[in-house]
């Protein structure tokens, strides 16, 4: 039995990834604040289990409760493989340093850094205790490697995820788990809408992102999820700890 735990699965890339797993007859645990009836209906049609865990990842109490529910569902004697896709993330605050609000920074780091670390921590413990293999995919961003005006918080959080992924892979190198980060590039999602709504004072390059939308240069979440699934088809070729970038994968 296989399960896929996908955070931020109600929309965007998370929804697209969850859909791909359902179509591959993998049982899905979707973690998000709101549900997705289309995914539930698709799972019923495919004859696979679909569980929605309602969870606000910015709240530690809800995160802990959600992890308990996930562990009870996914880590059973019949389970032999679990995918964990840490996809949930926020872009706000888009603002220059000196204008940042403490609550927004704290929430950002809780969702983008603390939550994925704790998801991996719990799932790894459960998997190692039961002898279950894990496929850990941390969704990152090219912003982790760039200096972008107004994105100090987001770039820092994604850089942290990249280093966490590398360290995790080092520590688990003899355990047989698959561990990597996936940088999906620029997609047509609600997050992109938030970016385009920024002011030029807060984000100097906002015009470039508006142009991408106007000229139709944004990839769909389904296309980006498909590239990830193609990568997962050959797990033995995956280099643990590596950041796989969509643009490199589609050029192969």
TrEMBL record:
Keywords of the record, alphabetical order, are: Cytoplasm, NADP, Oxidoreductase
| Organism name | Halobacillus karajensis
**Which biological process annotations from GO are given for this protein?**
tetrahydrobiopterin biosynthetic process
Gene Ontology cellular component annotations, sorted alphabetically: cytoplasm
Q: Where in the cell is it found?
A: Cytoplasm
Q: Which family does it belong to?
A: Belongs to the short-chain dehydrogenases/reductases (SDR) family.
Q: Which domain of life is it from?
A: Bacteria
Primary gene name: yueD
Q: What is this protein called?
A: Benzil reductase ((S)-benzoin forming)
List the molecular function annotations (GO) for this entry: sepiapterin reductase (NADP+) activity
Q: Which Pfam families match?
A: adh_short (PF00106)
Check the record and name the InterPro entries matching this protein.
Biopterin_syn/organic_redct, NAD(P)-bd_dom_sf, Sc_DH/Rdtase_CS, SDR_fam
